[in-house]
Amino acid sequence: MEIIIKPTVAEAQQETAKIMRRQISRKPDSVLGLATGSTPIGVYALLAAMHEQGALDFSQVSTFNLDEYVGLEAGHPCSYREFMREHLFGKVNLAPSRIHFPDGTAKDVPLHCAEYEAAIVRAGGIDLQLLGIGREGHIGFNEPSSSLASRTRIKTLTPQTVQDNARFFGSADKVPRHVITMGVGTIMDTRHCLMLATGGGKAEAVARMAEGAITADLPASILQMHPACTLVLDEVAAAELKRCEYYRWVYDNKPEWQRV
Ligand code: F6R
Fold first, then answer.
1. Does 163 sit in the ligand 1 pocket, CB within 6 Å?
2. Which residue CA neighbors atom 2 of ligand 1 most closely?
3. Closest C-alpha residue for ligand 1 atom 9
4. Which of 177, 155, 175, 158 is nearest to 167 (CA)?
5. Are residues 208 and 137 in contact, defined by beta-carbon separation less than 8 angstroms?
6. Which of the four pLDDT bands, split at 50, 70 and 90, describes residue 59?
7. 80: nearest Cα among 228, 221, 179, 163
8. How large is the average pLDDT for residues 17-45?
9. How crowded is the C-beta side of 50, counted as CA atoms within 13 Å?
10. Which residue of 13, 60, 72, 207 is surrounded by the most CB atoms within 10 Å?
11. Strand partners, 196
12. Average pLDDT over every residue of 205-219
């Protein structure tokens, strides 16, 4: 796992956006896996600005979002589809036919989940998966105790995640209890995982993920087994890592050809 520690949230967001831009520049028909939540908002703003300036073309890009709430119609202001429209899709030249989401209103959830997995395979697999991390170590909405081999399926949010996401809904009782999420195995199949974590609230989960034991109790810890995982942090999110100095040393001594 490559761990990049930047002094500020803004610099961590810039590094993440630059890695995404490099991916799209190298492979204009990239398949991107995308995350929602507060963490990537600044990254999406930077990508939208790059597009606005003519420096980034999404016309051949395809996207698969990690997750969606069960029961929220398309167009619901708190749906992740709406979140993505507001923060990225409404601002770049992505073809609507290349945008994919789990459908939180699917009648046959297992069938829909199998079809989502099949659509990812048909697209050629995900080249770069953007991730955030939950306070309890979830990726996507793979909450603690999720199978580390799981595929796209329905999950029940933990009370902590419901609480953490209440800010989007106005109160915790309005947050749906269920989501459809790509599985841990689905995420592990992606060619490059790019996680951004910022703020002190993530420091413990980040340290356990990168330096602790691999365990379903902290699903993100499986990323230690991913062959190409980049973790971008601000100082505060990196505060509980034991080997910060080594991670900085690695970054400072990175061969020129590996730099973004
Ligand atoms: C959302 C997702 C989640 C979030 C995580 C962090 O699509 O996959 O894993 O990345 O809950 O959320 P924020 O960024 O709001 O702290």
1. no
2. 140
3. 140
4. 175
5. yes
6. very high
7. 179
8. 98
9. 20
10. 13
11. 232
12. 98
- How much is the pTM? 0.97
Residue 172 to residue 103: CA distance in whole angstroms = 22
Per-residue pLDDT band at 258 (split at 50, 70, 90): confident
Q: Tell me the C-alpha distance between 110 and 121, whole Å.
A: 17
Q: What residue type is 258 in one-letter code? A: Q
Provide the residue ranges of all domains of the chain, joining segments of one domain with +. 2-255
**Pair of tokens at residue 24:** 């799209």
| CB distance 145 to ligand 1 below 6 Å | no
Structure-block tokens of residue 95 = 């073809």
Q: Domain 2-255 classified CATH 3.40.640.10?
A: no
What pLDDT was estimated at residue 73?
Answer: 87
CA atoms in the 13 A half-sphere facing the CB of 251: 18
Contact 38 CB / ligand 1 (< 6 Å): yes
